[in-house]
Amino acid sequence: MSQITCPKCGAAADVAVGTPYCAKCGWNREAAARKLTRVTWLLPALIVVLDLVGIIGPGFVMHNWPGAILFATLPTLLLGFVYAGARQGLAKLRAPKGSANLGRDVASFAKTASASVNAEKSEQYNFMVSLPPPRPVRLGARGKITLTVALLVAFVLDAFLIWNLYGVWYGTRSFADFHGPQIFLASLTTLIACVPFFVRRGMVRHKNLMENGAVAMARVTGQKNLKNNSIIAYEFEDANGKIISESGPDLTRSLYEGMTVPVFYDAQNPKRQVTACASFFEIVNPCEG
Predict the structure, then answer these.
(1) If DSSP codes are grouped into helix, strand and coil, which group holds residue 146?
(2) Claim to verify: residue 140 and residue 261 sit in the same structural domain
(3) Is residue 141 domain-shared with residue 96, that is, in the same domain?
(4) pLDDT class for 146, splitting at 50, 70, 90?
(5) Which residues pair with 229 in a beta bridge?
(6) Is 201 in contact with 150 (CB distance < 8 Å)?
(7) Is omega for the bond preceding 134 within 30 degrees of 0, making it cis?
(8) Residue 278: how many CA atoms within 13 Å on its side-chain side?
(9) How many angstroms separate the CA atoms of 209 and 278, rounded?
(10) Nearest Cα to 258, choosing from 95, 119, 117, 93?
(11) Could you tell me if 90 and 144 lie in one domain?
């Protein structure tokens, strides 16, 4: 993952348990501390569970007490080192930020760097927000890759299933031998063939919203990682002044709490919306050649 920059002061962010935070201005510091606190609670519990498994299993059940001691000792030592590191990181996160003079210096630096970061973001987002509908939209690299992969996977799987079904049919030249498994495979073949159409439907919805929908700047209120995916929670104010709170994927994996992202929504139904970081499409900058 690329270096994460603090959205407030522009400094390089540190990472604790997958959560970025800024040691200079304190951005997202509490969120990182909360996650690290959970780890410091879970590790002792995990050590106790593994020790009990070692004592009860190899010890009482198998009467292998040397093995039970070894089974209980190794996880305790390994997880103990991890626990010590977690406690040290938590102490660092909860440490005072420094003297008042240092705080003023950081605040001064934050204002200057934040202006630079905001100016850079303005260059990226200003044309999105300012363009009236219909906006010029094109399929982005993510959309092309997603559509290509969906078509290839659907084609390969369908070809494999059809070939197997054809082999059953070719033996008797009749569908009379098609029973439960074959009927299931035929249904699965039809379902897989529909996958590209479902993908295209989502793309068309995104394209319509980005072309003709209202646009607002959403503030990211939370972020979490699920396997290799980044999910963000965000909120924005619609044209009627109502605050809309939603969550969705961040395909760029570059947004964290406190950052902003353009969101395109249906003015009649703001729940129908898509963020720029979750769309398969991108708006063409009129300034581009």
Answers:
(1) helix
(2) yes
(3) no
(4) confident
(5) 226
(6) no
(7) yes
(8) 24
(9) 12
(10) 117
(11) no
Domains in the chain, number: 2
In degrees, to the nearest 5, what angle opens at C-alpha 241 toward C-alphas 240 and 246? 100
Q: Which amino acid is at 114?
A: S
Please give the residue range of the domain that contains residue 188: 131-289
Residue 136 and residue 122 in one domain: no
pLDDT confidence of residue 176: 65
**Three-class secondary structure of residue 286 per DSSP:** coil
Do 147 and 168 share a domain, yes or no?
A: yes
175 lies in the same domain as 57: no
Cα 3 to Cα 1: distance, rounded to the nearest angstrom: 7
User: Do 50 and 72 form a contact (C-beta atoms < 8 A)?
Assistant: yes
Is there a single domain that holds both residue 87 and residue 226?
no
| Residues 73-104 pLDDT 10s | 766 777 776 777 777 676 766 655 543 333 34
Contact between 21 and 27 under an 8 Å Cβ cutoff? The reply is yes
Angle at 220 between CA 106 and CA 210, to 5 degrees: 130
The helix/strand/coil state of 158 is helix
How much is the average pLDDT of 226-244? 87
pLDDT in tens, 270-286: 888 999 888 888 887 66
Determine the pLDDT at residue 243: 92
- In the numeric block, which tokens belong to residue 140? 């982005």
Token digits for 181?
């498994």
* Dihedral angle over CA of 14, 15, 19, 24, nearest 10: -20
Same domain, residue pair 84 and 120: yes
Q: Which of 2-11, 41-50, 211-220, 222-231 has the lowest mean pLDDT?
A: 2-11
Whether the full predicted model's pTM is greater than 0.85, yes or no, is no
Can you tell me the mean pLDDT for 193-209? Answer: 77
Burial class of residue 148, CB neighbours in 10 A (0-12, 13-18, 19+): exposed
